[in-house]
Design a protein that fits this description.
2 copies of one chain form a homodimer. Chain A is α/β, with parallel strands linked by helices. The first copy, chain A, has 2 domains: 167 residues, 3-Layer(aba) Sandwich (Rossmann fold), CATH 3.40.50.720; 106 residues, 6-phosphogluconate dehydrogenase C-terminal like domain (6-phosphogluconate dehydrogenase C-terminal fold). In chain A, 52% of the residues lie in helices and 13% in strands. Chain A is built from 12 helices and 8 strands. An 8-stranded mixed β-sheet of chain A has the order 3-2-1-4-5-6-7-8, sandwiched between helices. In chain A, β2, α2 and β3 form a beta-alpha-beta unit. The first copy, chain A, is globular and about 65 Å long. Chains A, B: It comes from Formosa maritima.
Chain lengths: 283, 283
């Protein structure tokens, strides 16, 4: 591999770039981004070596697509149109069914590997890129059987170097599971932020009274609407299901409180404490 | 000050003890706890110098009450009964109205200072105690006018040494504000944990798929039910109000999704992003 093209040089694309540059400085990393100031920033941060355009993609050994999922769905077919028969194209979107569907009949479907590296922060843009972001994180690969074996192997080599653990899953199962463990967390945090901001008109009060607990629970409410609106749109059915169950659990909790059933609340919380053991080691 | 008694040598009591021991090693710290193994642990961790009982409280210059709020409400009157006229008694509970009410007519009301240091972690017990936990954190003091001036001054000296910022508030305002910025966060996290655990019967799936985002949003679901059930009980009316508004915001979000109003979702999230600026510096 000599030429890697990163489409979208933000948190994910930039972090992948950092890892690759560190591990193999001989590779030339080309950046493509609709926002030219991001490209300039990415060059000055040494995330990419040079700017490029979609027309250059025929030179790519590897293309990493790390843009919002709606843009991926739209652009992926023409990205595949532009690459050579030997190129590998990887996406990193937080939804998989719509993206896989967008290229299911593409003549170069075998050049594409659908992945979702479960890593990130609440920040975005080139400055948010972090070295080692993917170490010990899970990378979900979907529809591996549709990717050429040789290209799949090339991807695994890179993921291994980045320290990722691989899990294979079909796109529908991915979208259903991830709605619970990721998408719902974001809505929960956004709505917590909204509820507090609406109530506490005096921002000094929020600042003074909020402890690290609130800061942690609301952290994801800092996330980019550009990134997250299309995720909710593409995963609409699953996300609505998670919201139904979350709202129903909150309503039950409220009803326990109204009925002074604090023993039930205690037992509920004690059972949920089990999340400690499940999460041990994630942090 | 020579003799400090800490009632409840867990996360809060133990952390206060660590700070005091560091800043003034000549003070003797006595521990009282209904759980004798906590006392033994606190001694071996050097959080306290010796075990004590309620009968010893007449020797105290300062008593710190750091036990669940229901126990504080019940025990505070007899703690005040037992201390000398010159002793200062401080609580650290996450609710203030019920606790202040429990001693409003106590002959030694002037010996009591109602406080809520906004600091903590999701862990509990002596092992959870941390040095410097209170540095740069807010300490809310309620009904300061009911505490003897001299004793209030003694408290401020300690809080200053611990690095805390003071805010004065009446108990009702405290309970109303804190329901939003603290109590609701806990319920939001607990119910998120519940929703995910109920759905993902295969715990390996939660572990593999959960990123740092889920871990952060659900973190408070590790909190102690012994501590939190009485808080919800004492602050019932306010907490129910926050739940009503949180559920209503979640329901509106869901309705936007069902109606494909993704522009409204985008705008909502963009406004909520403002929490970034408000929280800056809390972390």
């Amino acid at each position: 591999m000599k030429h890697i093209y990163i489409i979208g040089v933000g948190l994910i694309g930039g972090s992948i770039s950092k890892d690759i540059k560190k591990l193999n400085p001989e590779i030339t990393i080309h950046g493509i981004d609709k926002n030219d100031s991001h490209l300039e920033e990415a060059i000055s941060l040494n995330l990419i070596d040079e700017k490029a355009t979609f027309e250059d993609l025929y030179k790519a050994d590897l293309v990493i697509v790390s843009i919002p999922v709606d843009a991926t769905e739209i652009l992926l077919p023409s990205i595949l149109d532009n690459v050579s028969d030997d190129a590998l194209v990887i996406d990193s979107g937080s939804t998989k069914a719509s993206i896989c569907k967008a290229v299911e009949n593409h003549p170069k479907r075998r050049n594409f590997l659908a992945t979702h590296p479960i890593a990130g922060t609440e920040f975005s843009g080139p400055k948010a890129a972090i070295e080692g972001l993917f170490e010990n994180k899970t990378n979900i690969i979907c529809e591996v059987e549709k990717t050429a074996f040789k290209l799949h192997e090339r991807a695994l080599t890179i993921f291994k170097i980045m320290g990722m653990n691989i899990r294979y899953m079909n796109p529908e199962a991915h979208d259903k599971h991830i709605a619970y463990v990721s998408h719902l967390s974001h809505i929960s945090a956004f709505m917590l932020g909204k509820t507090v901001i609406e109530k506490e008109k005096n921002e000094r009060d929020i600042f003074d009274l909020a402890g690290s607990g609130f800061a942690s629970t609301v952290r994801l409410a800092k996330s980019s609407p550009n990134m997250w609106t299309p995720i909710f749109k593409q995963n609409k059915t699953n996300v609505i299901e998670t919201l139904d169950e979350y709202i129903s659990n909150l309503t039950k909790f409220k009803e326990y409180m109204e009925a002074d059933k604090f023993d039930d609340i205690f037992n509920d919380m004690e059972n949920i404490n089990h999340i400690k053991d499940i999460l041990n080691g994630i942090a």
